[in-house]
Design brief:
- It is built from one helix and eight strands, in the order ββββαββββ.
- By secondary structure, the protein is mainly beta.
- The two termini are about 15 Å apart.
C-alpha cells in the first residue's frame, strides 16, 4: 500500500501484516489503530484521526494485492494496472 501522510506531505509505502510479521521493514500491523483503519480502503480514500491532540490524515494512493499464486495486482487511484 502506498499512501501520503498529510502531516508532512511525504509519500510512504508499507505492507499490512499480522502482528507477528511486523518486525519486517515497512510493515503496519492490521491490529494497530492505523492498520485496522486502512483495511479495505482503496486509492483515493482517506482516514482522519486525532493522535495526542494532533489531527492526522492519510490518503491511500495505491493498493497492491498479493494473490496466493504470488502474482501482484495493483490499483492506482481507481485504475487497475
Amino acid at each position: 500500500m502506498k499512501f501520503v501522510d498529510h502531516a508532512d506531505a511525504r509519500i510512504q509505502q508499507a505492507q499490512l501484516v499480522f502482528p507477528d510479521e511486523v518486525l519486517r521493514r515497512r510493515c503496519i500491523s492490521v491490529l494497530s489503530p492505523i492498520g485496522s483503519a486502512l483495511i479495505g480502503l482503496g486509492p483515493g480514500q482517506s482516514i482522519r484521526w486525532t493522535e495526542q491532540g494532533r489531527k492526522r490524515r492519510l490518503a491511500v494512493l495505491e493498493v497492491q494485492v498479493r494473490q496466493r499464486s504470488g502474482h501482484e495486482r495493483s490499483t492506482v487511484v481507481g485504475r487497475k494496472i
